[in-house]
Amino acid sequence: MSHANAVLTPITRLRLARLVVDHDWTYAAAARMFMVAPRTAKKWADRYRLEGPAGMVDRSSRPHTSPTKTHPQIVRQIVRLRWRQRLGPVQIARRLGMHASTVHAVLVRCRINRLTHLDRVTGEPLRRYEHPHPGSLIHVDVTKFANIPDGGGHRFVGRQQGYTNQAATPGLPRGKDHKPRTGTAFLHTVIDDHSRVAYAEICTDEKADTAIGVLQRAVAWFADHGVTIERVLSDNGSCYRSYAWSDACKQLAVVHKRTRPYRPQTNGKIERFHRTLADGWAYARMYQSTAERNAVLPDWLHFYNHHRAHSAIGGKPPITRLTNLPGHHI
């Protein structure tokens, strides 16, 4: 595409060149016709003689040689310092004895000028991916939240009052120290890689049978919304390594994939969803009991899927990436 200030477009260049080459117009006459300089008319006519219509397109303005370009070995040193020590342009420039502006230009060219583009653990550039259509891949995982004693938990009422509420809640089991235990809520979550549409269930454990039941219901829920699940990605939890889970995936015609051990970034979409879930639902306000918090989850999931703007998909709700979806305009 021609730049904004170009006088001639590729089609107009072709017309000019044909007047000179095919109709024997002089450079001056053709240039006067299109209000350009004669040397411009000669340039396009010469290209037309050598390359034909293909020569009318724009070419890169990059020079053939760049004698002052930073040496590749220096570039590797800059990248290594950025990756391994997370240094800024000024610190790197001081170590290598060069200008900070040159270091910054190299970092921009290598797309690591911002630390947010680097993995916090490995220091390597983040490799983001997104599957092409809904159902191509779903992420599954389990996150845990402590149950809430009657009257509220320690996050909102303080530890002393929280322990008092815990002791006053009837029916709680007691540990070896005879103190009451509120227990743990296991939230099994499923999120579609392409649309970020989420499905979740609150369970009492994270065993294989429970995870399989959640997967079966999630697949059916997505099918009701017109989405066919093709692959499922999980971590290496015991429930996902079981033979029962493998058999269930085969029965559902779903290909199971697992992340690399100690590499939760691969399953980063659902890990980020857990953070949103905690901020927007689990710890969003004070709940008087676990039952009260659990009752809010369906409404929050509806808000997340149908109304909450998602920055990774252009500031639109996840549901907008599914077409012909029931309740789309709710």
Q: What keyword list fits this structure?
A:
330 residues; Nucleotidyltransferase, domain 5; 5 strands; 42% helix; elongated
How would you describe what is shown here?
The chain is of the alpha/beta class and 330 residues long. It folds into three domains: 10-56, no CATH class; 72-117; 138-147 and 183-321, Ribonuclease H-like superfamily/Ribonuclease H (Nucleotidyltransferase, domain 5, 2-Layer Sandwich), CATH 3.30.420.10. 42% of the residues lie in helices and 10% in strands. The protein has twelve helices and five strands. The chain has helices at 10-21, 27-34, 38-51, 72-85, 89-96, 100-109, 154-157, 159-168, 208-224, 243-251, 268-282, 290-306, and strands spanning 138-146, 184-192, 198-203, 231-234, 255-258. The chain has a five-stranded mixed sheet with strand order 3-2-1-4-5, sandwiched between helices. Strand 4, helix 10 and strand 5 (255-258) form a beta-alpha-beta unit. Helix 1 packs across helix 3. The model is unreliable at 326-330 (pLDDT under 50).
